[in-house]
Amino acid sequence: MEKSFPKSLIEDDHLREVAERVFASALGSEDSKVELSLFDVAVDCPIGDREAKERELMKVAVEPTRGKTTGRKHLLRSFTVDPGLSQVGTLDSVPLVSSAKSALVNVPDFQRVAITGDYATGLSMEDVQHAAKGLFQAMAIREKYMRLSFQRFPCTTSFYLRCSENERWKEEDQVLPTFTPPPKPNEDPFSTEGAPDNLGYTARMNDGVVHLYRSQENDAQIYNLPYPHLETFITDMNVLLMLIADGPTKTFSHRRLKFLESKFHLHEMLNEMAELKEVKAIPHRDFYNVRKVDTHIHAAACMNQKHLLRFIKKSYRVDADRVVRVKDGQPITLEGLFNSLHLHPYDLTVDSLDVHAGRQTFHRFDKFNSKYNPVGASELRELYLKTDNYMEGEYFAHIIKEVASDLEDSRYQHAEPRLSIYGRSPDEWNSLACWFLKFRVHSPNIRWTIQIPRIYDIFRSKNVISSFGEMLKNIFLPLFEATVNPQKHKKLHVFLKHVTGFDSVDDESKHSGHMFSTKSSKPDEWTTEKNPSYTYYMYYMYSNIMVLNNLRRERGMNTYQFRPHCGEAGAVTHLLAAFMTSDNISHGLNLKKSPVLQFLFYLAQIPIAMSPLSNNSLFLEYAKNPLPEFLQKGLCISLSTDDPMQFHYTKEPLMEEYAIAAQVWKLSTCDMCEISRNSVLQSGYSHEDKVIFLGQNYLKEGPEGNDIRKSNVAQIRVAYRYETWCSELALLTDAIKCTDD
Amino acid sequence: MEKSFPKSLIEDDHLREVAERVFASALGSEDSKVELSLFDVAVDCPIGDREAKERELMKVAVEPTRGKTTGRKHLLRSFTVDPGLSQVGTLDSVPLVSSAKSALVNVPDFQRVAITGDYATGLSMEDVQHAAKGLFQAMAIREKYMRLSFQRFPCTTSFYLRCSENERWKEEDQVLPTFTPPPKPNEDPFSTEGAPDNLGYTARMNDGVVHLYRSQENDAQIYNLPYPHLETFITDMNVLLMLIADGPTKTFSHRRLKFLESKFHLHEMLNEMAELKEVKAIPHRDFYNVRKVDTHIHAAACMNQKHLLRFIKKSYRVDADRVVRVKDGQPITLEGLFNSLHLHPYDLTVDSLDVHAGRQTFHRFDKFNSKYNPVGASELRELYLKTDNYMEGEYFAHIIKEVASDLEDSRYQHAEPRLSIYGRSPDEWNSLACWFLKFRVHSPNIRWTIQIPRIYDIFRSKNVISSFGEMLKNIFLPLFEATVNPQKHKKLHVFLKHVTGFDSVDDESKHSGHMFSTKSSKPDEWTTEKNPSYTYYMYYMYSNIMVLNNLRRERGMNTYQFRPHCGEAGAVTHLLAAFMTSDNISHGLNLKKSPVLQFLFYLAQIPIAMSPLSNNSLFLEYAKNPLPEFLQKGLCISLSTDDPMQFHYTKEPLMEEYAIAAQVWKLSTCDMCEISRNSVLQSGYSHEDKVIFLGQNYLKEGPEGNDIRKSNVAQIRVAYRYETWCSELALLTDAIKCTDD
C-alpha cells in the first residue's frame, strides 16, 4: 500500500457554493433555539406504541406485500437475502452473507423475513441509483480516511465497495489498529526499560500538522508518511455536505431506515422465543457475566457522588494536618482548607456537595460544568479531581484506584476513563505521565483515553497562548518527540503505551458560525479570540493523529483511535466531520436529524457510545432518547455512563445505566448482551483482551465472529443483523451496477 | 369510647338499586379488556409536558385569577390558607394550619400560593355543598371503621369532620395501633418466656367472624368486643358506591385534584431553590442516609435473581449429598434432585433460571406467577422459596437472612416482607411459627407481614376445603386461640408479636362477577367452586382482624394493620372496599379511574405503596405510571419493589427503584426524601423505631411533626403539603356549614 495522502483538486465552485448553503442552513436550524423540537422522535414514549405497532406489523406479515411500483426500471433481482449464493463476486471471497453459510457457522434455524418480487421503494430507479452512488462515494471517502489513520472500517462494507467498482476485495487490504497487549505475568506495566532507540528525526509543525524531518539541519521531509492535504479534505467534506442535503438520497435513506426498523420488529416477533431459547441453553453465561465496557466516562467524574463524599470524609480523618495546598506562598493544611470554606467534612452530604445534575441543568451546559466543583469550591475540585496540584494528584489517583478496584471486584465490568490534556503548555504530557507512573494507576479493568477540550477561546482570551497553532503544538509535538526518541522521554513513552485514543470534548451547542474551508486561517494565523469551528478542530486532530499513527506503526508501537464527543447537540455537520475522521463517537443523538448520516453510520457500522442518563439531565428526556430506535435499526450502539458523579445514584453506575434502559425500553437479555458485545468491540481493549472477552474469531463479521458462549448473544440475532446489513449493501451495489448496463 | 359496632338498618331500596347499577357498570367497563386505555393518563410521557405546563402556569401566576362565578351563592370566605387564624373551632384545638403557626415550628419563609376573592369552581353552590357532604360522609365512614380496628385515621381530618358536625375534636379520640417495640439489649426476641395467662375464652366462628364466649360450656358472648354488623357494612358500602358515581361529586373531586396538581407546580417553581437550600444546609443527612422502608415486598421474591442463582450454586457446593426431599418414600439428595432435572448448578445462569419477568409477562399475570418456579421446576421453588418442605424451610430462611444482612449493611434500608398463610389447614400458623423460631429469622431491618392469597376456588376445586367458612376458620381461629391462651401456643404467640399486618393478594384482574350484599351466601354456605368477590374477602378479613385487634389491645398485645394489594387492576370497587377497611394499600393504580376515590384517598391521607417497576412488567408502562402525578397532588406515596427476583437487576433493588423513578421523572432530593419519609410512616415499624427514624414528634401532622435533621425533607415542603391539605378540608367544612345558615 502506498503511503501517501491521495490528493484531489477543487475546481468545482458550484460544489463549494452548495456546501456553504447546506452548512448555513444546518447552523440556521440550530439557531432557532428550540433544539428539542428538532428531534423528530414520536411524541409518544417508545414503549407506548410497541403493541399497536406489532399488531399492525403482524397484519402486514400475513398479507402478501403488494408494493406500488412507481417508476420501476429494470432492477429485477430480489435484493434480500438470497439463500444459497450471492451474485456479487466469487463465492470464496464473499463475506458470509447467505443463510446457507449461516448454517455452516452454527446458526440455528430461524424465521427469515424475505421480500420477494420486484424492487420497489416508491422512488424512481434513477433516484435510487443516484442515492446509491452518493452513499457508496461517501463510504469510499470514510474508508480512505480510516485506512490512512489505522482506524477501523468493516471488511464487509469494503467488499461491497470493491464489487461496485468491479474490483476484487482482498483480505490484505484490511487495516487494523494496534493496542498494547495486557502485561504478561511478572511484567511491570510501568517499566521504563527497553525503550526503543532514537530515530533522530526532527518534528516541526507546518500549518497545524506535525511534519517530520531527517534532522534539525536536514530539511528533507520523511517521505513515507502520509501528510494530509487540506484541499482534498475540504473537497471530500463538500461532497458529503451536498449528499446529506440531497433530496432523493434523504428520501431513500429515510425509507431504508424505516424498513430496517420494521424488519427488526418482524424479526423480533417471529424469533424472540428462539433467541431466548438459544441464550438460555448456554451454560454459565448470562447478562451478569458477559464483558461490558463503559465506553465513555470522564475520569474526573468516574466515581459516584456518594463515593466522592466518602473519600473526602476519609481523607479528612487521616490527613487533616497535612499540607495540601500552597496559596500566596503560605502552606495550607486540609483542615485549614476546610476552615477557609467554613465547613466541616463530617457535616458534608451529597446535597451540600452538590455535584449531581439536577433539574436545573437541563439545556444548561454552563450550569452543568460548574457541578464539577464540590460544594461549589474550585479548590476542592483541584484537590480531589485533578492530577496537577500541590499533592501531584495523589487523591485523584486514589479515587480512580478505588473505582478500578470496584470494577475488578465485579470482574466483568470495564471502563475507558478520559484524562484531560488542554494544550496550554507543552509540559502537560510530562506531568500527566509522571502522575501515571508515580501512583501506578493501572488496572486490567481500565483503559485510558485522552480528552482535549475545545477551549482555545478561553486560553486565548487569558493570553495563555497566542494562536491556535500553539495549542496544537502543545498537544501534539510532545507525542511526536516521545515517539521519535523514547529514550529521552521514557515516562511519556510508557504512558503512551497505555493510551488508546483521543477524545474531543466541549459543549456542542455553542458554535462559532465559522465554516471550515480552504480560505480559513491557518492555525498559526488563528489568533483571534473566536473559537474555531468543530470541523476545524476535527481536521487538525485527525491529521496529527493520522501522521502520529503512521509513525508509531512503523516503529511497532501502539496506535490511537479518534473517538470524539459528537452529535450530543449542535449542527449535524459535526457528525459529518466525525464520519470522515473518527473511529467511533460518543452520543450521536443528532443522527435523528439527518437520515443520510444515520444510514451511513449504519452501513459503515460506526460504533456509537450512548449515554441516555446523561442526555436526560442535559439535552434530551429519557423517553425520547433515540437509543432503542437506533438499536432496532441495527446501528452499532453501546451504553456508557459519561459522568457517574453527576448522573448516577447506585454503587454500580454502568449496571444502573443498563438496568434503566432495560426497564424503560423493555430490552431483552439478547438486546442487552448485544449492546455489551458492541461495547467491547468499540473499546480500545487490545486484540489479546478481546480474544478472551469475545472469542478467537471476534474480528470476523457476522455469526462466524460471535462466540455465544462468551457473548451470550443469540446466533440468530447476529445472523439477522449480518444478513440484513449485507442485503442493504447488496441493494446499493446492484443499483450501481444496474446503471452500467 | 363505647366498644360496639354501631348499626344501621337498610330501608333504602333505592340506595341498593343504584349501588348495584354502579357496581355493574364498574365491572362492565372493566370487561371491555382494553384495560390500558382505561387509564386516562395523558398519552404523552409526563416529563415531556412539564416545561410547557410550567410556562402556562407562570402566565396564570402573573395574571390575576378571574374565576367565572357560576351559580355562586354566599360562600364568601377565602378558603385558602388564612394567615393568622382559622375560623373553625377555637385556636388552641386547631391543628397547625396557618402560616403564622408554621413560623412557630421553624418553617423558613416561602412563597405561598393564595387564591383570593370569592369561591368559584364553575360548579353551582348546591353541587359543591352536595359534594362536600358526600365526601365528609365517606370520611366519617372510614373514620368509624379505622377506629373500630385500631387502624390509623389522621387527626387533622377528624378535626374538620368534628367541625362540620359542630362538635369539638378531642385528642383522646385518636386511635393508634400498637407494634411490638424492638428487643432491648440482651432481650431475646425469640424467648417464649413470660407468655400471658389463659383467658379461658372459647373462640367460635359465626357467619365467618370469630366470636368469643366465656367458655366452652357457657355461651355468653364476650360483651365488650365490637362484632361487625353485616347490614351496616353493606349500607355504608352502598353509600360510598353511590358517591363515587355521583356526577357533581365526580366533577368537584376532579377539579380539586387538578387544582392540587397545578398548585404544586406553582409551589415547585416558586420554592424549589428554597427547598433545596434548606436541605443542603442540613449537616450529615442526605438521601442516602434517610430511612426508607420497602413497604411492599414478597418474601419468596425478596432476593434478586443473581442472588438466588448464587445461593443455589453455593448450596450445591456444600450440600450435594444431603437429603433435601422425600418422594414416594424415597429420600432424594440435592445432587439427585438436580440430576432428575437434567441440569448441573454450575451451568445455571439467570437466563436458564428464568425467574425474571420479561416482555412476555405484560398483562399476563398467569405467566408471571409461573416465574416463581426456578428453571420452571416447582421442586426448586419448594426447596428454596418455601417454609414447609422436607428441610423445614432451611434454605429459604438462609436466603432471607442474607437479604436482611445486606439491608443491615446498608443501615438505612428496611423491608416488610410478606409470608404466606393459605387457609388450607389450621396447622399452617404453627408450622410458620416453628420455622421462624427454629431459624431465628429476625433482623432490625425487617418487619413481617402475612399475605393471604385469595385462592379459595383452587382449594375448593381440589377438595382441600369444603367451604369459604372453613378457609376463614383455618386462617383466623389459631390467631384467636393463641391470643386467648398464649401459654398453650407459645411459639405462635412469639411469632405473632413480630407480625405487623395482613395483606390480601392475588390477580385483581380476575373477577367473580359476584356483588357482595346482604343476600350473599354466608361463608359456611359458600361451597361452590366460584371465588367470592374482592369485597367479600375484604369484609371477612377486616371483621376478623378488627375483633382480633380489640382482643389483643385488651390483653396489651400488639395489633395488626390491614394492608391489602388493591387497585393494581380490576374494578374500582376494590379501592372502595379498601377505603372502608384498610390502613393502607399496595399499588392503587386504579385511583386514576375514580376522581372521587382519589380525592378521598388524598383527604384521608391513606398511604399507598407503589411499585412502578412491577407495574411496568405487568400492568402499566413505566412512563404512564400515575406515581408522579399522585405525588404532586399530595397523595401519601411510598416506593416499594414488590418482587426484586422478578423485576430488578442490581444488588440494591430498593435503591434501583428510587434511582429509576428519580431519573425518569426528574424527582428532586426533596421529593425522594418525602417518599422515603412516607414509607416509614406507612410501615409497621414500632413507635420506638419511628421516633429514632423520624424524630420525637413524628406523630404530629404538618411541619411540627417533621424533623428535617432526620428526614431531610424541607420544612417548606411539609408546610406546603399541610397548609394545602387543611385548606381543602376547610373548604369542604365551610361548604357544609354554609348549608346550615
TrEMBL record, chains A, B:
Domain of life (superkingdom): Eukaryota
Q: What is its EC number?
A: 3.5.4.6
**Pathway note:** Purine metabolism; IMP biosynthesis via salvage pathway; IMP from AMP: step 1/1
Question: Can the keyword Ribosomal protein be found in this entry's annotation?
Answer: no
Top EC group:
hydrolase
Q: Which reaction does it catalyse?
A: AMP + H2O + H(+) = IMP + NH4(+)
Q: Which cofactor does it need?
A: Zn(2+)
List, alphabetically, the PROSITE patterns matched.
A_DEAMINASE
Q: From the UniProt entry, list the residue stretches annotated as the region Disordered.
A: 172-197
- Record keywords: Hydrolase, Metal-binding, Nucleotide metabolism, Zinc
Q: Which Gene Ontology biological process is one annotated for this entry?
A: energy homeostasis
Query: Lipoprotein: present as a keyword of the record?
Result: no
Q: Which residues cross the membrane?
A: none
Q: Which InterPro entries match?
A: A/AMP_deam_AS, AMPD, Metal_Hydrolase
The Gene Ontology CC terms held by the record are: cytosol
The UniProt GO MF terms for this protein read: AMP deaminase activity; metal ion binding
Family, according to the entry, reads as follows: Belongs to the metallo-dependent hydrolases superfamily. Adenosine and AMP deaminases family.
- Function, in words: AMP deaminase plays a critical role in energy metabolism. Catalyzes the deamination of AMP to IMP and plays an important role in the purine nucleotide cycle.
Which PANTHER family does this UniProt record tie to the protein? AMP DEAMINASE, AMP DEAMINASE 1
Q: What is this protein called?
A: AMP deaminase
Species for this entry: Eptatretus burgeri (Inshore hagfish)
